[in-house]
Amino acid sequence: MRLGRLSLTKQLLGLWAVGGAVLGLATWICFTLNLDSSATAFVYLAIIVFLSLRDSFLSSAIFSVASVASLDFFFVDPKFSFQIQYSNDLPLIGMFLLTSFVITGLVRRLQLSKVTLERQARLLDLTHDTVVVRDAGDVITFWSRGAENLYGWSSEEAVGKISHVLLKTVFPQARETIDDRLRRSGHWEGELVNTNRDGTQVIVASRWSVQRDDSGRPNGTLETNNDITERRRAEAALRRSQAAYLAEAQKLSLTGSFGWNADNGQVFWSEQSFAILGVDSAVEPSIGLLLERVHPDEIESVRRAFDRASQDGSEFDIEFRLLLANGSIKHVHAVAHVMADETDRAQFVGALMDITPAKLAEMRLQEAQAQVAHVARVTSLGVLSASIAHEVNQPLAAIVSHGEASLRWLNREVPRLDEVASSIRHVIANGKRASGIVQRIRGLIGKAEQQRSVVNLNDLVEEVIPLVRNEAARHRTLLQLDLGDGPFAVSGDPIQLQQVLINLVINAIQAMATVEDRTRSVVVSTRAEEGDLVVLDVADSGPGIDADQAAHVFDAFYTTKPGGMGMGLSVCRSIIEAHGGQISVLSRPSGPGAVFRCVLPRVARAIG
Ligand code: ADP
């Protein structure tokens, strides 16, 4: 720092010495040549301009004052004195002084703008951005230090070359479009790919702005470029790793993704979607290709879901089976909705999940539940065996007695054929009754596949009651029906629903075994409830169920009976829930006892 200041002072002193010498020499020459004061003033002015350009305002001010003094002393009368004899010399001295100060002022301005320019140039060189100025013919006229560093060419090498030829620029759009934009708005921004001197490529964020001459006509372009190669590379790497993670996650979760444009039918499937559908990922995906793999029984419903979604842009959520080329079956769940930022409601994005393992587990669970239910059913029929025997015996006894009566009518001297016919009609009716009961029991004992149909709950109650009526009678229990104004149509498996009712009635009868102080009564009632629901209540006058017990009665293996299995109510709950309903236990509102309530969704149509 001190060294710098020292050399500056030296420089200044040297300039002043040279200036003084030049001024002295000019004075001697002018004096010798006997030039008048005006001519000498011009010579001085020339020297002041020269000296001022070489240094600061202070130096030029000092030289101006020295020149005025010298002019006055040597060239204005009386000579060799600072006095002025003739008043018409005064304007000359004044003009000279003024002019030399104006020159000094101008020089100062010039110096300042030079300093500013130098500072700006240094700033430009400091930035990592490249700054390139091109003329109207794309010839480089300025090439910053940043440009030298990035591209590898020095300013001398680059200036005079056509920029996009030198840099082998790849434009993001047609050059005409860029130029057109630049002409209209004066600016353009975009990403370019340039080739460096060493042949490597760089991606730059480029900003262009039009340069204009004094009359406002465009005469070139200022281009600043920022190297974003690393950023783009990192982004691409990130995208690649995200895509890899996503693909792996899709594989792990057996979930593929898809896109579908309902307008033009364009379809995108992820790798995992191809894998789920068993299609080679090189094949062009399409809805047709998907439908080819849908199980024939479900093609119509899948097609309908697609049609509906494409018509009103509604979400779709559908489970269906695939029948693959190798004959295997897959269960899939497809969900899709219109993409959030789409306005045309035609661009869908969705997920395709392979739910085969879950479905198989569910099916195995259903089988296990069905087996448990079957065991529970057979068990309750065991409880009912005496009643059932009685129930079958009655028509059999009737058949025997009507048969005997027929024989008697036939053995008469004049056989009474009308009576015989009437007895045979009774035989047939009782035979049908017995066979009806046997059939129902076979249904309950058999391991029939679950069969869904529309069942009228009132009919179901009336069919079951004969099987339990005798059991109720054996336990001195009054069994009453209070059936609402049906039909109460529910969709379900009649055998399973019968099982629920039998279980609830047997439980009620058993719960009242110790009741002696009041009538043992079981009331089976049905009614409709708001919200398209049907309620089936089995109310008894037994001991009832306290809150503690209520929390557990539906648990598997919960029993308070010595020989009980504790499966009855648990099976009832799974059956009712599989029918979309709910089962609960309440206290009987009028007096002691429990009410087991099944609430099921009501459907539109009843059969039978
Ligand atoms: P289990 O009949 O083999 O005991 P359940 O699951 O059918 O199995 O019944 C579980 C328990 O719930 C019974 O042991 C009994 O304690 C209680 N329970 C069932 N129904 C009634 C009822 N109507 N009143 C009182 N308690 C009942």
What does this structure look like?
There is one protein chain. The strands form 4 sheets. Strands 2-1-5-4-3 form a 5-stranded antiparallel β-sheet, sandwiched between helices. Strands 7-6-10-9-8 form a 5-stranded antiparallel β-sheet, with helices on both faces. It contains 19 helices and 17 strands. Strand 1 and strand 2 form a beta hairpin. The chain is rod-shaped, with a radius of gyration of 54 Å. The chain has 608 residues and is α+β, with helices and mostly antiparallel strands. The mean pLDDT is 85. Adenosine-5'-diphosphate binds next to helix 17 and helix 19.
List the helices and strands and how they pair.
Elements: H1 2-32, H2 37-54, H3 57-75, H4 89-126, E1 130-135, E2 140-143, H5 145-151, H6 155-158, H7 163-166, H8 175-185, E3 187-195, E4 201-212, E5 218-227, H9 229-252, E6 255-261, E7 267-269, H10 271-277, H11 287-293, H12 299-312, E8 316-323, E9 329-338, E10 347-354, H13 356-383, H14 385-411, H15 417-445, E11 453-456, H16 457-474, E12 477-483, E13 489-492, H17 494-511, E14 520-529, E15 533-540, H18 547-550, H19 568-578, E16 582-587, E17 594-601
Parallel strand pairs: 12-14
Antiparallel strand pairs: 1-2, 1-5, 3-4, 4-5, 6-7, 6-10, 8-9, 9-10, 11-13, 14-15, 15-17, 16-17
Helix pairs in contact: 1-2, 1-3, 2-3, 2-4, 3-4, 13-17, 13-19, 14-15, 14-16, 16-17, 17-19
Bound molecules: adenosine-5'-diphosphate.
